[in-house]
Amino acid sequence: MRTPTASKPTRRAALGMIGGGLALSMAPVPAFALSDAQARQLIDTALGEVNAAIASGKSGAALYADFERIFVRYADVPVIARSALGVAARGASSAQMAAFTTAFRGYISRKYGRRFREFQGSRFEVTG
Fold first, then answer.
1. Residue 126 burial (CB < 10 Å; 0-12/13-18/19+)?
2. How much is the pLDDT for 114?
3. What does the pLDDT read at residue 93?
């Protein structure tokens, strides 16, 4: 019976190294996060922009363009678009995903831009 040596790797050793590497890669690591004050500032800034767009009195395409700009600035639009597309996103090419993301961004800004017009004269506020 042969005894494996350190100079001669075995399949068992290779699998052990791969398994160990996978286990380490799944270990919890601290994520980058905003402090409470930074998070509050981010929300206040985003809401300030939404409130300013609503109060601007703009309508139609001008208001939708404002909401699209705000949406793109504060949301991870490519991730949201990929999620909205679902399983079909897996088979889409980069060009198709880019086109869908652009169309999705416009759709969301028009859809919610119409809804936000209902709130003209109002102000959004987050508490808690």
1. exposed
2. 82
3. 96
